[in-house]
């Protein structure tokens, strides 16, 4: 299977506006851009001319001045919702920059191995199709400190060069690129200095992932980039925004899947999962409560005790954690013959001695509905030639990788159960093993991890999940369920992920937009072609429907998602719609014909007269005296 290249209008706009920043720039040639054996990118425009071009683009693109964040820095920002093809957009932008202006030196800077492999794979998939369009074939390669001849070619070659690298390649003085005392220097200068003389245009993929720290900024500047073009759905640093495709735009234009949130928690389970009552202090004045809750700290989320809390204390203010947005203490009480409790204004009640919910129970429910949703979609999609994939995030590798791991056991048990329900027979052990793929591996010490470097040790699975996207999309490949740790949280996606579950023992630190983003792409069939839903398709009948099964209630999931959207766009309305499907129970309509003879019988009328009696009670309590 080969994925097909489409000419999509929104992607062409993203490319056009970046190219327009350099309107008026002359062509780089061998004569004007080759200095002392180094082929460089030479800029002929002044800062003033570039600034004016950016302002003109903002007017054409409808970007308000407040969002534009105009700056004299050589940064450009392109904001595209996850799943809309930003990797392909910036690869095509590189071709266009060469075509229009003759720029030849490009660096794609990525924060992780997962993203790096995704970039290299995207280039490999579309290389021939792009060559046919542009009549040129850039040399795209991964930086490798053991193959410095490639770096030499990058510096000297007249032909377009694309070097894909991570920050770790040059973020400290002892890295090979920075070393000044070597026998294989480039004309007696460190490689970093020679690269800097080439004035590369730098593509920054997901720059919010560590590229804006003081050290990173300093190291990036040593490469002397002509421009830094930032691509992300969730920019933290915004400068010179030239194109924006919001989640709402993507959703309304049908550029991504619709989202269904399937929750498995009953009423008040959110509280029992996220809050414990440690103690109630009785003394002078009103009673006070100490709660054990998830605090958001610089180091991440910590489950720890609060200080003494009074009535009307807001847990969101105490913890800084958005999941407690609606948890305001209404009552703290310690009855004489009963357990102490804390009641919240949203109706949740926490009692002394209640423990956080048993994760194995929650995991079992989540896995059950993940597999159920997978099976229901699988048969429908197979008729269209579409492979169904499901992705599960976990926070402890041992919970899956060990034979008695709680997630491993739950998956095998639930898969057998649901397979029997759907197909009338149990699957074989070989079948259960074959449908699973995972993104973590064994270290030299025998420990399992999701560390990027260790993952490459398990080459077969590593290649299948990160490199061989087409193979994973094939109906002939048995892998249907992928298990991963945080390494797939950013940068990796697959168009045929239709279900995502988050099985975390702790609070999920993956941002909701990142979590959802792993499965937002429009799906593809066995011919590598995108398959879109027909206009006016009935809700719930869409092909492109992503089911998310989080480890929290629908309300909490949506409030977090909307909070992330509001933080960036100033309004939660900029996000994609989500719909709730509680415990997998879809809407079921069935007409029942009334039995008129029974309905009009004297016995039924007497029964209804007694049943329909209305009784009202009015009860008063003096809470002070109690």
UniProtKB/TrEMBL annotation:
GO MF term set: ATP binding; DNA binding; hydrolase activity
Which residue intervals define the domain Helicase ATP-binding in the entry?
Answer: 56-262
User: Which SMART domains does the record associate with it?
Assistant: DEXDc
Gene3D superfamilies assigned: P-loop containing nucleotide triphosphate hydrolases
Transmembrane segment boundaries: none
Q: What is this protein called?
A: Helicase ATP-binding domain-containing protein
Source organism per entry reads: Candidatus Desantisbacteria bacterium CG_4_9_14_3_um_filter_40_11
